[in-house]
Fold this sequence. Notes:
Layout lengths: L4 E4 L3 E5 L5 E5 L1 H11 L4 E4 L1 E3 L2 H12 L8 E3 L5 E6 L5 E7 L10 H8 L3 E5 L8 H4 L5 E5 L6 H7 L5 E5 L5 H12 L5 E5 L5 E4 L4 E4 L12 H14 L4 H15 L13 E2 L1
Amino acid sequence: xxxxxxxxxxxxxxxxxxxxxxxxxxxxxxxxxxxxxxxxxxxxxxxxxxxxxxxxxxxxxxxxxxxxxxxxxxxxxxxxxxxxxxxxxxxxxxxxxxxxxxxxxxxxxxxxxxxxxxxxxxxxxxxxxxxxxxxxxxxxxxxxxxxxxxxxxxxxxxxxxxxxxxxxxxxxxxxxxxxxxxxxxxxxxxxxxxxxxxxxxxxxxxxxxxxxxxxxxxxxxxxxxxxxxxxxxxxxxxxxxxxxxxxxxxxxxxxxxxxxxxxxxxxxxxxxxx
Length: 274
């Protein structure tokens, strides 16, 4: 597979509170990179970690997964930590987030040039990359952006002109509002718009047709990272030139699989316990 992907943006230690008591590597950009690498797409990660044990753990885990971390900068200070709690049904809740050295960190030209050399750049609303989208699009790489549920008019106006593949999370809300969102976003630049709706499934729109996919049913342990696995699965399939329906189905399968264990990807053998 010649396609290369770089994921630019956030990483963190997901600190699961009692009774789970685990510390696992996560973050949207990191999780998508790991998923795509596991799907056979060579993946790199660009971001910032602290010069603390948590930062070393992030780099170690990514190397073990085969993700290139050469352009991760190690800064003096704390690596980002997110406190996570789980409901009895396995639904994750973010209790507290400390961005650590990522707060206000500045991507340098070397990192941006490296990213531009890839076939696809994936980033996220939490990645601190919005000021750099123009720079990232100076190359030939296509740009994927995960808005999550943060799609204010101001953010859309600032970003959509640079985005080729747009991901949104709408939850199991009414289809009327989603249709309006998809039409508006697609008309502003992105060639493909994807919306995940949790247990209500997902959809993708390319300007000609809207494709729908039901959620894959599994016994849920932890929903954290399911959306990131969905994105990784969709992008990996899309880079293989599969149709949008097939992309949604593979993404749904990987999202469901991510719900069957703690953390965004399986780290059982290397798990760090509190």
